[in-house]
Prior knowledge:
- By secondary structure, the chain is an alpha+beta fold.
- The protein has three domains: 51-104 and 254-294, GSPII I/J protein-like (Pantoate--beta-alanine Ligase, Chain: A,domain 2, 2-Layer Sandwich); 106-198, EpsJ-like (Ribonucleotide Reductase Protein R1, domain 1, Orthogonal Bundle), CATH 1.10.40.60; 210-251.
- Helices cover 42% and strands 17% of the residues.
- The chain has seven helices and seven strands.
- The strands form two sheets. It has a five-stranded antiparallel β-sheet. A two-stranded parallel sheet has the order 3-4.
- Strand 5 (256-265) and strand 6 (270-279) form a beta hairpin.
- It is elongated.
- The mean pLDDT is 89.
Amino acid sequence: xxxxxxxxRRQRGIALIIVLWTTVLLTVIAGGxxxxxxxxxxxxxxxxxAAAARWIANGAVxxxxxxxxxxxxxxxxxxxxxxxxxxxxxxxxxxxxAAVDEGAFIDVNTGxxxxxxxxxxxxxGLDEEAAAxxxxxxxxxxxxxxxxxxxxxxxxxxxxxxxPYGPANAPFEAVEEVxxxxxxxxxxxxxxxxxxxxxxxQSSANPLTAPREVLLSFPNVTEAMVDEYLARRQEAxxxxxxxxxxxxxxxxxxxxxxIQATVTMDDxxxxxxxxxxxxxxxxxxxxxxxxxxxx
Length: 295
């Protein structure tokens, strides 16, 4: 039985269409596979780069601790916990580290009450009465017992406010606890928390390294006095000279350092390690890590 020419042409056309669609389908599959492989390769590369940045940042913190703890004969060679940045390269990584002694901040456990009050007024934006009440609440939080200050708060006040917790009646273990104190709003906490610490164990702050907000917290100082002092302090640091005395007084350095190391890889990957390290004076364990976090 013979097949007519028209039927043969139709069969060839159908076969051609099938071949074309098969080619298109295989092309799409191949393209999707290639894209998937490229995405996986990029993801792997990013993961490797992020891991490298993390470990380099860890090493930068270790180097900073070594430099701060090693005596130097020449002042220009010595690293100081004064907030100045040190920048260098390691292979494909750009590294920037800065260290400041923890005494530059106000200790929420041991800091003077007038400094806390000044911080809540000058930086937190509270008025005198509200700031005084908040200081009372902070003292009540860190003090054992149920004896309440005039403007403070104890367990009954937290319960009355509908909070499922009360004061710890013990020293603050972390600055984040300040956000739980009755009267501390999220906005207020965001403004003042960068200038608080629980690690300096000092009653005052070190003006030689303290930020502007902390210096403004000292009693009987004005913005003009603080800005003039900061300009003179910056000039002294740039010239590798001892900073001038602060007109508002202040405390000394703490044996605890706050270190931040930022690593930027050539492909744009970045990682920041934050650490708080305390010198113990014990040769068997010369340093203790109080904080090991990341930005």
